[in-house]
Amino acid sequence: MAIVDDHELARESLQNMLSDEPDIDIVGEAANGRQALLLCSRFRLDLILMDVRMPVMDGLAATKEVKQRYPEISVMMLTMHDNPDYLLEALKAGAAGYVLKDAPREEIIEAVRRVRNGESPLDPELAARLLRRLASEGERRRGTGGSHETAYAVEPLTPRELEVLGLMKLGRTNRQIAGDLVISLGTAKNHVEHIISKLGVSDRTRAVVQALELGLIDLR
């Protein structure tokens, strides 16, 4: 993974925090989004911790570029404030989630692991606000000439996959989905992977965003 932040002390702090974890390997650092793209071309990254506000190229623009060029790389945003406007744009750009810079060490490490395991580290209350806004935008688009026909541009989801998608919308982990539906963890994981593939996205956060935009699910 790589750390991208224009403040050297912030990068050093995160490096010290994460380098002691045996399952986390930091292979590079960058001070802006343009440098982050260079790291992506040099290393086989699985995750980038990306600051939102940076010179040259900010985290939102960089995230969009990373996901377009390297969709297999997950991006988790680093932010000082849980501003829903920034985070909404980050999710639209393809970010898998976010973590506050001043969060406790254990929370940041857990967020990193959750993204690498295909989960979405989003505060439930803030995530609900973001999803409500996305749903409202989708309704406005459909009310001004858009339609649900867009939803059929993707491979249809099965009833069970729509059920799983509804739980993903609530922020459930694969293990929680398995418990809710009384299925095995492996089966839950397979359903999530099929949903992501059918929607043509790279992670579960984007799958929920895409489903809301297409009108496949709502917030009720």
TrEMBL record:
GO process annotations (BP): phosphorelay signal transduction system; regulation of DNA-templated transcription
Give the matching SUPFAM superfamilies.
C-terminal effector domain of the bipartite response regulators (SSF46894), CheY-like (SSF52172)
- Gene3D superfamilies (UniProt xref): 3.40.50.2300
**Response regulatory domain boundaries:** 1-116
| Keywords assigned by UniProt, alphabetized | DNA-binding, Phosphoprotein
The parts of the chain that form a coiled coil are none
* One Pfam family hit: GerE
Looking up PROSITE patterns in the UniProt record yields: HTH_LUXR_2, RESPONSE_REGULATORY
Q: Specify the HTH luxR-type domain's residue ranges.
A: 150-215
Please give the residue positions where the record annotates the modification 4-aspartylphosphate.
51
Which GO MF terms are attached to this record? DNA binding
Q: By its UniProt entry, which CDD domains does this protein fall under?
A: LuxR_C_like, REC_NarL-like
Signal sequence coordinates: none
Protein name as annotated = Two-component transcriptional response regulator, LuxR family
